[in-house]
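haha ok so turns out i had the wrong file open the whole time. this is the CORRECT one, sorry everyone. sequence first:
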Amino acid sequence: MNKLLNLSILQISLLLVLANVLVYGQVIGFEFVNFKDTFYVENDHVKNGLTWEGFVWAFSHKYNLSQSLNWISHMLDVELFGLNPAGHHAVSLFLHVVNTVIFFLIVNNLTGSQNKSAVAAILFAIHPLRVETVAWVADRNDLLAMLFALLSLEVYRRFARNPNILRYVLMAICFVLALLAKPVMVVLPFVFLLIDFWPLNRLQGETGSTEINWRALGKLLIEKIPLFLIIGFSLFMIFKGSESHPIESDTASVPWLVRLATMPVLYMKYLFHILWPAQFSVFYPASQEMPPLWQWSGSLLIFLVLTFGALSQWKRHPYITMGWLWFAGSLLPMTGLLRLGDHDMADRYTYFPLIGIFIMVVWGLAQWKVMREQEGCVAAVTGGVFLVVLMMISFVQTSVWKNNFTLYRHALAVDDTNYFAHNNLGVAWLGQHQPEKAVLHLKQAVTHCPRCIESWLNLGESYKAMQQWQPAVDAFREALAVKGDNVIAHEVLGALYHSRGDGWLAIHHSRRAEATYSKRFGPDYDKAVALRQKLEVYYREYFLRPEDFASES
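then structure:
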């Protein structure tokens, strides 16, 4: 391997840049997709660009502290490129390129193994699991979190070699910035402990022994107390913000026993996608049912065998122990224990954890006897072919993200029962003023997820666009059957019943909508004001009075 990759650090860095551009350069011609892209880019606070008011809002502890830097990044994009998706995609690609090069430099600095670091970096750059993070504008937070996590690792490496307060403070600042991009980076202090074990060898103390020095471990834990305090404060602020802005999820009420049983299953699914990069989807619907006994017990057994096997190698092959614990530990928050959405897993969740697997694989293969002998050239050429194939797979997978239609059709090709893909494809057709095509997919969405309020609302809007009033009313009423205080359903039903001359129901639903808007956003909220004005017209037109509805209050 050393003979084959006799390149300078600069040459390797340029090759990494080139590989990224070849695989992901196509994203600059892609559109926004209707999966959160417009939510981030066209948000009322973002679409005005980088303003002081937007900056203050982005750091509001009540709603946004968990992704403050994400908001600031999107504001800067809008300031520079407006709503042209090319600029937003170019920034995401640039950040991934920067992360790739920094990753290579850091691993090289940590291990002194330039060629192995280069191979790990190319895997980091081009593995198909990276596609979602690079091609999806809304996933900017993973790119930013990775950037500051890598910078904090480099500063920590320097601090470990030559401790001083300035480096510690700089490392802590980078850690805070990573948390402000994505709270899952609470795992960083534990990653610091892993690199203390290998390759920094700080857990062995100054004896040079392979045994762990427990006194040294105690000192390292004490050294990280300020970082643990930062974690505690960050989680407290996020929790306080979530009290007034709860995340609604159809799977949030999944029993804990189901979540615990699902965790080892998800680990195995992620490992399968790493080893066999196929059948990726923009959305993996979550199940609220207990996995089959054979599935979760078998997955748990394999996970425990892999974990104990990795731990058993801590003396002979410490990179295996470190790499596996990096992967398993940093992926833990995303394995279903705390569900923050209606999906089981996501490709983007592997952006940071996968580093551990790449280090395990590359350093492990380099120890094979065949890699150190003459046959190593054959093995290296085989590895090169593998990397080219991997790049081709990633290139094709990236093209899936070109627009809404390519993205969701691909998801349905993977799983035609994917209600999320049906819903968003229906919304895409509705945006193209083809509600009849939208209805076909939205009916599939509510068939596979009868409690998905958004799909019922979109189905109602599609029927409205087709001027099929009764099916529209039925769809909005189904939304209310799932969640009786849904303000959108009440507002639209009020207008629909008015158009049909049913004054009582028009007023009933409009009153419910006005009350909900006023409660959530205040009586001066524009939609609440507009509804009160409508209600005044309805009362006069239908010869009804507010007192007639007093029993509903």
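Residues 114 and 407 are 38 Å apart (CA to CA).
again sry for the mixup
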